[in-house]
Amino acid sequence: MDHLKQIRAFVDSATRGSLSAAARVEGVTPAVIGRRLDALEARLGVKLLLRTTRKLSLSFEGQAFLEDCQRILNELANAEAAVSLGGVRASGHLKVSAPAGFGRRHVAPQVVAFIEENPDVSVRLDLSDRVVDLLNEGVDCAVRIGEMADSSLASSKLGEMRRVVVASPAYLARHGQPLAPADLAAHNCLSLDQQRGWTLRETPAGEVVQRKVSGAFECNDGAVLHEWAVAGKGLAWRSVWEVGDDLRCGRLISLLDDYAAPPVGIYAVFPQRRHLPLRVRLFIDRLKTTFGNPQYWGLGR
After folding, report:
1. Would the pTM of this model clear 0.85, i.e. be above it?
2. Plot region of 44 (φ>0 → left; ψ -120 to 50 → alpha; else → beta)
3. Sequential DSSP letters for 99-151
4. What is the distance between the terminal CA atoms of the chain, rounded to a whole angstrom?
5. Tens digits of per-residue pLDDT, 16-40?
6. Short-list 207, 144, 149, 148, CA closest to 181
7. Residue 256 and residue 203: Cα distance in Å, rounded?
8. CA-CA distance, 125 to 107, in Å (whole number)?
Protein backbone atom coordinates (compact mmCIF):
# COMPACT_ATOMS: atom_id res chain seq x y z
CA MET A 1 0.00 0.00 0.00
CA ASP A 2 2.88 2.40 0.82
CA HIS A 3 4.37 1.70 -2.62
CA LEU A 4 1.08 2.65 -4.30
CA LYS A 5 0.87 5.87 -2.28
CA GLN A 6 4.42 6.72 -3.34
CA ILE A 7 3.59 6.17 -6.99
CA ARG A 8 0.44 8.29 -6.73
CA ALA A 9 2.45 11.05 -5.05
CA PHE A 10 5.00 10.93 -7.88
CA VAL A 11 2.39 11.00 -10.67
CA ASP A 12 0.37 13.78 -9.06
CA SER A 13 3.46 15.90 -8.38
CA ALA A 14 4.91 15.41 -11.87
CA THR A 15 1.68 16.11 -13.72
CA ARG A 16 0.44 18.96 -11.54
CA GLY A 17 3.76 20.70 -11.16
CA SER A 18 4.08 21.05 -7.39
CA LEU A 19 3.93 19.18 -4.11
CA SER A 20 1.16 21.49 -2.94
CA ALA A 21 -1.07 20.62 -5.90
CA ALA A 22 -0.40 16.91 -5.37
CA ALA A 23 -1.18 17.30 -1.66
CA ARG A 24 -4.55 18.89 -2.42
CA VAL A 25 -5.48 15.92 -4.60
CA GLU A 26 -4.50 13.43 -1.91
CA GLY A 27 -5.96 15.46 0.96
CA VAL A 28 -2.65 15.53 2.86
CA THR A 29 0.09 18.09 3.52
CA PRO A 30 2.94 18.87 1.08
CA ALA A 31 5.33 17.46 3.68
CA VAL A 32 3.62 14.06 3.43
CA ILE A 33 3.95 14.11 -0.36
CA GLY A 34 7.61 15.05 -0.01
CA ARG A 35 8.28 12.12 2.32
CA ARG A 36 6.56 9.72 -0.07
CA LEU A 37 8.69 10.99 -2.95
CA ASP A 38 11.87 10.69 -0.88
CA ALA A 39 10.96 7.13 0.04
CA LEU A 40 10.23 6.22 -3.58
CA GLU A 41 13.50 7.66 -4.87
CA ALA A 42 15.43 5.96 -2.07
CA ARG A 43 13.79 2.63 -2.83
CA LEU A 44 14.53 2.89 -6.56
CA GLY A 45 17.97 4.42 -6.13
CA VAL A 46 17.36 7.13 -8.76
CA LYS A 47 16.33 10.77 -8.78
CA LEU A 48 12.91 11.08 -10.39
CA LEU A 49 12.04 14.73 -9.74
CA LEU A 50 14.39 17.69 -9.69
CA ARG A 51 12.99 19.99 -7.03
CA THR A 52 13.73 23.69 -6.56
CA THR A 53 11.89 26.35 -4.59
CA ARG A 54 10.13 27.44 -7.78
CA LYS A 55 9.34 24.36 -9.80
CA LEU A 56 9.51 20.63 -10.31
CA SER A 57 11.03 19.01 -13.36
CA LEU A 58 11.41 15.38 -14.36
CA SER A 59 14.78 13.72 -14.62
CA PHE A 60 15.50 11.45 -17.59
CA GLU A 61 14.63 8.42 -15.47
CA GLY A 62 11.54 10.21 -14.15
CA GLN A 63 10.18 10.82 -17.64
CA ALA A 64 10.33 7.13 -18.52
CA PHE A 65 8.95 6.08 -15.13
CA LEU A 66 6.04 8.53 -15.34
CA GLU A 67 4.52 6.89 -18.42
CA ASP A 68 4.73 3.44 -16.84
CA CYS A 69 3.18 4.69 -13.59
CA GLN A 70 0.31 6.39 -15.42
CA ARG A 71 -0.37 3.18 -17.33
CA ILE A 72 -0.31 1.12 -14.12
CA LEU A 73 -2.70 3.46 -12.29
CA ASN A 74 -5.04 3.52 -15.27
CA GLU A 75 -5.06 -0.28 -15.53
CA LEU A 76 -5.69 -0.54 -11.79
CA ALA A 77 -8.66 1.81 -12.11
CA ASN A 78 -9.99 -0.30 -14.98
CA ALA A 79 -9.62 -3.49 -12.95
CA GLU A 80 -11.43 -1.95 -9.98
CA ALA A 81 -14.20 -0.69 -12.22
CA ALA A 82 -14.64 -4.09 -13.83
CA VAL A 83 -15.21 -5.64 -10.40
CA SER A 84 -17.15 -2.90 -8.63
CA LEU A 85 -19.37 -1.80 -11.50
CA GLY A 86 -20.39 -5.29 -12.48
CA GLY A 87 -23.27 -4.96 -14.91
CA VAL A 88 -23.29 -1.14 -14.98
CA ARG A 89 -23.42 0.06 -18.58
CA ALA A 90 -21.40 2.94 -19.95
CA SER A 91 -23.54 5.99 -20.69
CA GLY A 92 -23.32 9.70 -21.40
CA HIS A 93 -21.54 11.77 -24.03
CA LEU A 94 -17.96 11.19 -25.18
CA LYS A 95 -15.96 13.82 -27.09
CA VAL A 96 -12.96 12.48 -28.97
CA SER A 97 -10.31 14.30 -31.00
CA ALA A 98 -7.92 12.77 -33.54
CA PRO A 99 -5.66 13.86 -36.43
CA ALA A 100 -7.76 14.28 -39.58
CA GLY A 101 -6.32 11.62 -41.88
CA PHE A 102 -5.56 9.03 -39.21
CA GLY A 103 -8.88 9.66 -37.49
CA ARG A 104 -10.89 9.32 -40.67
CA ARG A 105 -9.29 6.01 -41.55
CA HIS A 106 -8.69 4.36 -38.16
CA VAL A 107 -10.52 6.12 -35.31
CA ALA A 108 -13.91 6.65 -36.97
CA PRO A 109 -14.48 2.89 -37.49
CA GLN A 110 -13.65 2.31 -33.82
CA VAL A 111 -16.23 4.92 -32.81
CA VAL A 112 -18.90 3.07 -34.79
CA ALA A 113 -17.98 -0.26 -33.19
CA PHE A 114 -17.86 1.35 -29.74
CA ILE A 115 -21.37 2.80 -30.06
CA GLU A 116 -22.68 -0.57 -31.24
CA GLU A 117 -21.23 -2.14 -28.07
CA ASN A 118 -22.37 0.75 -25.83
CA PRO A 119 -25.71 2.03 -27.16
CA ASP A 120 -26.23 4.37 -24.19
CA VAL A 121 -23.17 6.43 -25.18
CA SER A 122 -23.18 9.22 -27.76
CA VAL A 123 -19.90 10.29 -29.37
CA ARG A 124 -18.69 13.44 -31.05
CA LEU A 125 -15.55 12.87 -33.11
CA ASP A 126 -13.56 16.00 -33.99
CA LEU A 127 -10.94 15.50 -36.71
CA SER A 128 -8.26 18.17 -36.78
CA ASP A 129 -4.50 18.32 -37.26
CA ARG A 130 -4.11 21.05 -34.64
CA VAL A 131 -3.28 20.16 -31.03
CA VAL A 132 -6.56 20.66 -29.17
CA ASP A 133 -6.78 22.02 -25.63
CA LEU A 134 -8.55 19.16 -23.89
CA LEU A 135 -9.56 21.04 -20.76
CA ASN A 136 -10.80 24.24 -22.38
CA GLU A 137 -12.52 22.46 -25.26
CA GLY A 138 -14.16 19.76 -23.18
CA VAL A 139 -12.41 16.86 -24.95
CA ASP A 140 -12.52 13.57 -23.04
CA CYS A 141 -9.86 11.78 -25.07
CA ALA A 142 -7.49 12.75 -27.88
CA VAL A 143 -5.49 10.42 -30.10
CA ARG A 144 -1.99 11.70 -30.83
CA ILE A 145 0.97 10.31 -32.74
CA GLY A 146 4.51 11.09 -31.58
CA GLU A 147 6.21 11.86 -28.31
CA MET A 148 4.09 13.29 -25.51
CA ALA A 149 5.37 16.72 -24.42
CA ASP A 150 2.53 17.90 -22.16
CA SER A 151 2.94 16.22 -18.77
CA SER A 152 -0.20 17.93 -17.44
CA LEU A 153 -2.19 15.29 -19.32
CA ALA A 154 -2.40 11.59 -18.61
CA SER A 155 -1.58 9.30 -21.49
CA SER A 156 -1.91 5.66 -22.42
CA LYS A 157 0.13 4.12 -25.22
CA LEU A 158 -2.10 2.49 -27.80
CA GLY A 159 0.47 1.14 -30.23
CA GLU A 160 3.35 2.12 -32.50
CA MET A 161 3.56 3.55 -35.99
CA ARG A 162 6.40 3.69 -38.49
CA ARG A 163 7.02 5.51 -41.74
CA VAL A 164 8.20 3.83 -44.91
CA VAL A 165 9.49 4.85 -48.32
CA VAL A 166 7.09 3.54 -50.96
CA ALA A 167 6.69 3.45 -54.72
CA SER A 168 4.41 1.77 -57.21
CA PRO A 169 5.55 -1.29 -59.21
CA ALA A 170 5.16 0.77 -62.39
CA TYR A 171 7.53 3.47 -61.15
CA LEU A 172 10.12 0.92 -60.04
CA ALA A 173 9.91 -0.87 -63.38
CA ARG A 174 10.80 2.39 -65.14
CA HIS A 175 13.39 3.80 -62.73
CA GLY A 176 14.74 0.94 -60.65
CA GLN A 177 14.78 0.48 -56.89
CA PRO A 178 16.90 2.51 -54.45
CA LEU A 179 19.08 0.22 -52.34
CA ALA A 180 20.41 2.82 -49.88
CA PRO A 181 19.31 6.32 -48.79
CA ALA A 182 22.01 7.90 -50.97
CA ASP A 183 20.21 6.48 -54.02
CA LEU A 184 17.22 8.77 -53.36
CA ALA A 185 19.10 11.59 -55.07
CA ALA A 186 18.59 9.82 -58.40
CA HIS A 187 14.81 9.46 -57.92
CA ASN A 188 11.76 11.67 -58.19
CA CYS A 189 10.75 12.11 -54.54
CA LEU A 190 7.27 13.36 -53.75
CA SER A 191 7.78 16.02 -51.11
CA LEU A 192 5.48 17.47 -48.51
CA ASP A 193 5.59 21.27 -48.70
CA GLN A 194 8.02 22.73 -46.11
CA GLN A 195 9.00 19.25 -44.89
CA ARG A 196 12.52 19.31 -43.46
CA GLY A 197 13.40 15.96 -44.98
CA TRP A 198 12.82 12.22 -44.75
CA THR A 199 13.96 10.66 -41.46
CA LEU A 200 16.09 7.59 -42.19
CA ARG A 201 19.15 5.86 -40.80
CA GLU A 202 22.48 6.48 -42.52
CA THR A 203 23.22 2.74 -42.31
CA PRO A 204 21.01 -0.15 -41.12
CA ALA A 205 22.38 0.25 -37.58
CA GLY A 206 23.45 3.85 -37.88
CA GLU A 207 22.33 7.26 -36.74
CA VAL A 208 18.90 8.62 -37.65
CA VAL A 209 19.17 11.76 -39.79
CA GLN A 210 16.89 13.92 -41.88
CA ARG A 211 17.74 13.51 -45.54
CA LYS A 212 16.76 16.24 -47.96
CA VAL A 213 15.01 14.96 -51.07
CA SER A 214 13.78 16.61 -54.25
CA GLY A 215 11.58 15.95 -57.22
CA ALA A 216 9.15 17.44 -59.69
CA PHE A 217 6.11 17.10 -57.42
CA GLU A 218 5.46 18.91 -54.14
CA CYS A 219 2.25 19.37 -52.19
CA ASN A 220 1.08 20.48 -48.74
CA ASP A 221 -1.42 17.60 -48.53
CA GLY A 222 -0.10 14.15 -47.64
CA ALA A 223 -3.15 12.43 -49.14
CA VAL A 224 -2.24 13.88 -52.55
CA LEU A 225 1.32 12.57 -52.23
CA HIS A 226 -0.16 9.17 -51.47
CA GLU A 227 -2.29 9.30 -54.62
CA TRP A 228 0.67 10.41 -56.73
CA ALA A 229 2.74 7.52 -55.41
CA VAL A 230 0.02 5.00 -56.30
CA ALA A 231 -0.19 6.60 -59.75
CA GLY A 232 3.53 5.95 -60.29
CA LYS A 233 4.74 9.55 -60.15
CA GLY A 234 7.60 8.94 -57.72
CA LEU A 235 8.73 7.80 -54.28
CA ALA A 236 6.87 8.90 -51.16
CA TRP A 237 7.63 8.71 -47.44
CA ARG A 238 4.36 7.87 -45.73
CA SER A 239 3.03 6.35 -42.51
CA VAL A 240 2.00 2.69 -42.51
CA TRP A 241 -1.47 3.72 -41.27
CA GLU A 242 -1.97 5.46 -44.61
CA VAL A 243 -0.34 3.07 -47.10
CA GLY A 244 -0.78 -0.26 -45.32
CA ASP A 245 -3.64 -1.45 -47.50
CA ASP A 246 -1.69 -0.50 -50.64
CA LEU A 247 1.31 -2.51 -49.43
CA ARG A 248 -0.85 -5.52 -48.67
CA CYS A 249 -2.52 -5.40 -52.08
CA GLY A 250 0.69 -4.69 -54.00
CA ARG A 251 -0.30 -1.23 -55.23
CA LEU A 252 2.79 0.09 -53.43
CA ILE A 253 6.07 -1.54 -52.44
CA SER A 254 8.01 -0.69 -49.26
CA LEU A 255 11.62 0.33 -49.85
CA LEU A 256 14.73 0.87 -47.70
CA ASP A 257 13.14 -0.96 -44.75
CA ASP A 258 16.56 -1.69 -43.23
CA TYR A 259 17.14 2.08 -42.98
CA ALA A 260 13.77 2.99 -41.45
CA ALA A 261 13.74 5.18 -38.34
CA PRO A 262 12.38 3.69 -35.09
CA PRO A 263 8.58 3.74 -34.80
CA VAL A 264 6.78 6.46 -32.87
CA GLY A 265 4.02 5.90 -30.35
CA ILE A 266 0.28 6.27 -30.81
CA TYR A 267 -1.25 7.62 -27.60
CA ALA A 268 -4.59 8.35 -26.03
CA VAL A 269 -4.31 11.48 -23.89
CA PHE A 270 -6.91 12.63 -21.40
CA PRO A 271 -7.20 15.08 -18.48
CA GLN A 272 -5.78 13.97 -15.16
CA ARG A 273 -8.64 12.48 -13.17
CA ARG A 274 -8.66 10.11 -10.23
CA HIS A 275 -11.76 8.30 -11.54
CA LEU A 276 -11.98 8.26 -15.31
CA PRO A 277 -15.58 7.84 -16.57
CA LEU A 278 -16.38 4.29 -17.63
CA ARG A 279 -17.19 5.37 -21.20
CA VAL A 280 -13.71 6.92 -21.56
CA ARG A 281 -11.94 3.88 -20.09
CA LEU A 282 -13.81 1.49 -22.34
CA PHE A 283 -13.13 3.56 -25.45
CA ILE A 284 -9.40 3.76 -24.67
CA ASP A 285 -9.36 -0.01 -24.04
CA ARG A 286 -10.93 -0.59 -27.45
CA LEU A 287 -8.32 1.56 -29.17
CA LYS A 288 -5.51 -0.15 -27.27
CA THR A 289 -6.78 -3.63 -28.16
CA THR A 290 -7.02 -2.67 -31.83
CA PHE A 291 -3.97 -0.46 -32.37
CA GLY A 292 -1.77 -2.52 -30.05
CA ASN A 293 -2.27 -5.63 -32.17
CA PRO A 294 0.62 -5.84 -34.67
CA GLN A 295 -1.59 -7.80 -37.05
CA TYR A 296 -3.96 -4.85 -37.30
CA TRP A 297 -1.19 -2.92 -39.04
CA GLY A 298 1.03 -5.61 -40.57
CA LEU A 299 0.98 -4.71 -44.22
CA GLY A 300 -2.42 -3.11 -43.89
CA ARG A 301 -5.01 -4.74 -41.70
Report:
1. no
2. alpha
3. -HHHIIIIIHHHHHHHHHH-TTEEEEEEE-SS---HHHHT-SEEEEES----T
4. 42
5. 888 888 888 888 998 999 999 999 9
6. 207
7. 10
8. 9
